[in-house]
Amino acid sequence: MGNSTPASDAMDRSRTDRHPTRREVRRGSGPLTLVTGAAGFIGFHVAKRLLSEGRPVVGVDCFTPYYDVELKRARFAQLLPYAEFKPEPVDLADTAATRDLFARHAPERVIHLAAQPGVRQALVEPHSYVTCNVVAFLNILEGCRHSGVEHLVYASSSSVYGLNGVLPFSERHSVDHPVSLYAATKKSNELMAHAYSHLFRLPATGLRFFTVYGPWGRPDMAVYKFVRGIAEGRCIEVANAGKIRRDFTYVDDVVEAVVRVAERAAAPDRAWDPARPDPATSNAPHRVYNIGNDRPEELNALISLIEAALGRKAERTECALPPGDVLETRADISELRRDVGFAPKTSLEEGVRRFVTWYRSYHAA
After folding, report:
1. Do 46 and 111 form a contact (C-beta atoms < 8 A)?
2. Active site residue 182
3. Nearest one of 226, 221, 240, 206 to 328, comparing CA atoms
4. For 117-138, how does the pLDDT look when each residue is reduced to its tens digit (9 = 90+)?
5. Which of 154, 182, 289, 359 is catalytic?
6. Do 254 and 260 meet the contact criterion of CB atoms below 8 Å apart?
7. Contact (Cβ atoms closer than 8 angstroms) between residue 279 and residue 69
8. Is residue 364 pLDDT above 60, yes or no?
9. 322 and 239 in contact (C-beta within 8 Å)?
10. At 203, phi and psi to the nearest 5?
11. Which residues contact 213 (CB under 8 A, 6 or more apart)?
């Protein structure tokens, strides 16, 4: 079906290769890490960072067609030359295949970034969100439980804050009022992980990502959509007259936070009080952290920066705020600063400039 690519050829070979042991894939230094969504935006960058440091990685992806699969294959192809990389074309919603994946590799750490993303698409394909985000996550939890994984780090989302109107969003705030099915699946992940942490003492840390952007980004997100539309001279749709504020977070900063968190396994909070339960901590080895820039910017400011980087003005049309969206997000990252020393470094202006440079290079090729 279609022409083969380096990524697809390698995955085809991986189906017939004899099963490796943990020792065989650990050619580098450090613990063996299973990264899911390794052809996805954040997963690709995390896997590449670990591999560049000589760390062994098992990269899982089944290349779902939510957006351009060729972009996913192009990302994945950059990981294949690393000797410490083992590709695995596993659908994590397949219980038997996921069980076999863990049995063959027995990873010490799991960074679970695979998911069905997108607030708006969940209105159209709700069943796929439960399959990809809930069923698959249960299979990950079971794999971690039975393999004795030292630390599970998994992607949540700033979307879980829903109708919460208190800014900046804190891990201590309620997340009981999601406004999209996508957000509900991500809150479900947090609840499921906590239950496994409590029942089986599985150290698990959930990361609430805030509007991640950067090179190799997702075409359905604002930065990519606006850059493409303006570059091609097409009219861009701007919701709420551009008076929407987002905590745009550059991917390199996100990767730094993910890697630091992965090194620090979640531990029980001995001071946790069941009479006054703190949503940010637990007496189980489970934590959640915001991963954001802590400097929200208006959509109009983003568009101006893109216009400057491209050297051309945008043609705009106004539209209403889509269902499931909120007017403003902002991450309180004080917990992350305190525990892992995370501090975002990339301004939106610099991040947009880097994205436009990548965009021109990728699409010219």
Report:
1. yes
2. yes
3. 240
4. 988 888 899 999 999 999 999 9
5. 182
6. no
7. no
8. yes
9. yes
10. -65, 125
11. 221, 222, 223, 224, 248, 249, 250, 251, 351, 355
